[in-house]
Amino acid sequence: MFRFPSDSPGEFLIRRYLPAISGALQGLARLGNAFDMVGIMSCPRFVATWGDPKVIEGLERAAATGREAAAWAAGLRKIQAQLKAQRFPALVSGSAKAPFDFLGDHLRGTKEIVLDLLGADRQGYVNAV
Predict the structure, then answer these.
(1) Are 24 and 65 in contact (CB under 8 A)?
(2) How remote is the C-alpha of 119 from its chain's centroid?
(3) Which of 12, 29, 63, 79 could form a disulfide linkage to 19, CB 3.0–4.6 angstroms apart?
(4) Rounded to whole angstroms, how far apart are CA atoms 86 and 100?
(5) d(CA 33, CA 30)
(6) Cα–chain-centroid distance for residue 112?
(7) Count of CB atoms within 10 A of residue 16's CB?
(8) Burial, 21: exposed, middle or buried (Cβ in 10 Å; 0-12, 13-18, 19+)?
């Protein structure tokens, strides 16, 4: 889990979660932590991590992935426009994810979130399971 401010949710997602789920993005784990940059004197140390070959490779792969996703989205928009012209409903009109689902699916795990919600009753639940 994250320890604010050294690991904000954004830092966690970029430097821990993405490298863990995608081998191509493992270099992002070596990025400097933006929260370590507390003033102009620490800026060069933070920015220097961007020059790490593994970070560069991770960022280049992320950029390539972004270009591919943009091309896919452009093709999808073209298809959606054609379908709309024929009066079909939109493929996607919006989405949302409940905070419990986001935390459980991406950060803590469903079991851990449920145990967090139980609070003081946690040990009794763990023993019962």
Answers:
(1) yes
(2) 27
(3) 29
(4) 38
(5) 9
(6) 19
(7) 15
(8) exposed
For residue 98 the two structure tokens come to 């409940």
Q: Which two tokens stand for residue 114?
A: 């449920």
Distances (CA, A) of 57 to 48, 60, 64, 65: 15, 5, 10, 12
Maximum distance among all Cα pairs of the chain, rounded to whole angstroms: 60
Q: Which two tokens stand for residue 120?
A: 């003081």
**Which secondary structure element, helix H or strand E, spans residue 126, and what is its range?**
helix 122-128
- Are 49 and 73 spatial neighbours (Cβ–Cβ below 8 Å)? no
For residue 108, give the DSSP letter. Answer: S
Question: DSSP state, 99?
Answer: H
Which residue, chain included where needed, has tokens 């060069």?
A: 44
**27 contacts 64 by C-beta, under 8 angstroms:** no
Which pair of tokens denotes residue 62?
A: 């992320």
Position of tokens 């920015």? Answer: 47
Q: What average pLDDT does range 39-68 have in this prediction?
A: 90
pLDDT tens track for 56-89: 999 999 999 999 999 999 999 999 999 999 999 8
